[in-house]
Amino acid sequence: MVRRLYNFLMFSSVVSAMYSSKAMEGYPTGYLADCPGGDREAIISRKTLKYLTLTVIGKGNIQNVKKTRYTYFQMKSLAKDPDIDFKKKTAIYVGGYLDSPNFPFASVLGPAYKKQGYNALLLDTNKFTTMEYPVAVRYMRPVGQHVAEMLVNLTKEGLDPKKVELIGLSLGGQTVSFIAKNFKRMTGVTLGRITGLDPSGPCFRNLGPDDRLDQADADFVDVISTNIDGFGMAAPVGHVNFYVNGGEFQPGDILWMPCNVLCSHIRSYTIWLAALQNPDSFIAMQCESVQQAREKNCYDNKPMVTNVLGLETDHNKTGIFFLATQNNFPYYLGTNGLKREYEFFHAHMKEITDNDPMKM
Q: In this structure, what DSSP letter does residue 343 have?
């Protein structure tokens, strides 16, 4: 009797034990993965096209930089702007939901590209994003078509499509896709580069390459992911895909208070800005999968393949990359980012656990 009771208790303890796994837990679907009806046709009237503008960034610092705005109908005038030289590369920044060239993101990034020797243009989509988000998503398709028409008109004035680089933040990271797709449809030519700064996942996650950012949209597409399950998307849709600190959440100023969803999402922008100012400083390591990047478990891959986030990214080293950073601007770790002991949470966890307050 005693032995049977012992066996029963042992069996009960075994069946009550549970080891978690991804197969059991499942994988995150992400915030607002689907938006039924999000691809329903949206039409922008000719009268409303005047609100679709490109702002040329001229000389000056952030406080007093020269800005000249041109509407959809004024591309010939834009091409003659004294701050435009089509022999140079042309960077076009496309903001996200509710964004505007008058707001801080564009106001800082435009001059940063100008300083790099680019023609710097800021696309204003504010009229078409200041509405419920799923509706704004629908309008980014015709916005993409009409901006592509603007670029086609600029090519007639000397713009070289291969010297065009589109930079899109959040919803803008999907808008640039529609611009590039339509430009290719109209001309048969792909644009030079697209940089997606945590491209929007809501309403786009489960769509195919024809309806969201894809590596086929430009000669080179790089994606910086900082909030893949919230406002970003997890799929490696670019030629080179950087998963910053695993891509899920970013470290905040205080260890146990990480960035929230919006803060992590916007970190893609501040890291890109830092990379413009600190080239060759954001060194990432290649991973075998997005899951390996999520788990920050790419350090032991042999051989270690590295790439640099920024304007000098090696286009020939494609795939999934894990990038470790610090928690404060300018974020980069340099070569220390390739060593496990410098990974932010790992390093600070060791520091905390090594400090035993009960021994004081």
A: S
